[in-house]
From TrEMBL:
It comes from the Archaea. Belongs to the class-V pyridoxal-phosphate-dependent aminotransferase family. Residues 67-287 form the Aminotransferase class V domain. This is Aminotransferase class V-fold PLP-dependent enzyme. Keywords: Aminotransferase, Pyridoxal phosphate, Transferase. PANTHER family: ALANINE--GLYOXYLATE AMINOTRANSFERASE 1, AMINOTRANSFERASE CLASS V. GO terms for molecular function: alanine-glyoxylate transaminase activity; L-serine-pyruvate transaminase activity. Its cofactor is pyridoxal 5'-phosphate.
Length: 398
């Protein structure tokens, strides 16, 4: 099949618009030129809007500085931790999936970590989180939208606790910022992290962090007190903040990726964050209803203040095709020129995940559900792909 027939439904990287792809083909310029500074400023202004106005009403929810990073969001996670805490500090890390675990593993290298851990795909008990936070806690980390399991964690409730204990709060918004509601001040967020290749619909290899004034002051104080000891050279937050005032990065910038990101955030502005959030929510509902009509069940357990993700959907595979038998199912999906993701780590062979990040059309959502239904039929699972498509259409055309 031609490339135009390929449908990428992985939860990152996501499909790129033609304009975003084209932006990377421009004539190379110096990363220290006025031309590049204009690109950085354009991307930064767009990111400021996305970080602070990701609401259904469009109102601003905070002030701070967006930093564009030459690296994926893991770099942003490490920047947040390494610049805010040191060896004598305590971090409380919430873990209910792969990326919560990654945040905790990063924190392990810089501070003492107390984990609030539940089974992957399960919801946090906010009372257990409160019990873990003390007057000695310097930083709390959490993943807002856990990409590995499809859960929206209760950032608002955790943020209330960090405010009560006057603790810094770093939030991985990698698969929510740019696609769902995110509230900086209301949730007491000090540092938020996102990735180009997710809901921003930009290429892999570029990411962003949003740093509030409180976090910037804390980072400056830590650097001054430690004389830079323990702070990664490449992820030095005060240095990045200083260079960002000049619309620059401290080191050589990936010029084509910055160009692509600038176009991607322009496209988000043109759509409007409120409309974009509503679209992602409708499409997530359509995926959930479509898969339910195939007889499939959601993997995660959204309990209490926890909700199901609105940018990706995680589905439990039928018992009959789990484990090694899941390979045939994924092969049948790929044969139809559609790409979806399996489970990560110990969830491999137990679940599959699809994304509606980026700019999917209703027809592509329906094709995703139909493809899963047909692939299930190929491996002996009784289901009706047309019922799945009808459920999708009921949501998107209703």
């Amino acid at each position: 099949m031609p490339d135009d027939d390929f449908l990428l439904l992985n939860p990152g990287p996501v499909p790129l618009s033609e304009d975003v792809r084209t932006a990377m083909d421009g004539q190379m310029v110096s990363h220290r030129s006025a031309a590049f500074e204009a690109i950085y400023e354009r991307a930064q202004d767009g990111l400021d809007e996305i970080f602070t106005r990701s609401t259904l009403s469009g109102e601003s929810t905070g002030d701070g500085t967006s930093l564009v990073l030459n690296g994926t969001a893991t770099m942003g996670m490490e920047m947040a931790v390494s610049n805010l805490v040191g060896p004598d500090d305590e971090v409380v890390a919430l873990v209910n999936g792969k990326f919560g675990r990654r945040f905790a593993r990063i924190a392990d290298r810089y501070a003492t970590v107390t984990r609030v851990e539940v089974e992957w795909g399960q919801s946090f008990d906010v009372e257990a989180v409160e019990a873990a936070i003390t007057d000695e806690t310097a930083l709390v980390t959490v993943v807002h939208n856990e990409t590995s399991t499809g859960l929206l964690n209760p950032v608002s409730a955790v943020g209330e606790l960090t405010a009560e204990y006057d603790t810094l709060f770093a939030v991985d918004g990698v698969t929510s910022v740019g696609g769902d509601v995110f509230r900086i001040d209301d949730w007491h967020v000090d540092v938020a992290i996102t990735d180009g290749q997710k809901a921003l619909a930009a290429p892999p290899g570029i990411s962003a962090v949003f740093v509030t004034e409180r976090a910037a002051e804390a980072a400056h104080e830590r650097k001054e007190a430690s004389d830079g000891a323990g702070i990664p050279f490449y992820s030095d937050m005060p240095w990045h903040l200083r260079k960002a005032e000049q619309h620059q990065t401290p080191f050589t910038s990936a010029v084509p990726l910055f160009r692509a990101l600038a176009v991607a955030v322009d496209e988000i502005h043109e759509e409007g964050m409120s409309d974009r959030i509503e679209r992602h929510r409708r499409q997530a509902e359509a995926f959930r209803d479509g898969f339910a009509a195939l007889g499939l069940e959601a993997f995660p357990d959204a309990d209490g203040p926890t909700e199901l993700s609105n940018t990706l959907t995680a589905i439990a595979l039928p018992e009959a095709i789990r484990g090694d038998d899941a390979t045939a199912f994924f092969d049948a999906v790929a044969e139809r020129d559609v790409s979806i993701s399996g489970g990560q780590a110990h969830l491999g062979g137990d679940i599959f995940r699809v994304s509606n990040m980026g700019h999917l059309t209703p027809e592509q959502v329906a094709r995703g559900v139909r493809t899963v239904g047909e692939a299930l039929g190929d491996v002996g699972v009784d289901c009706d792909p047309e019922a799945g498509v009808a459920a999708v259409e009921d949501v998107l055309n209703g």
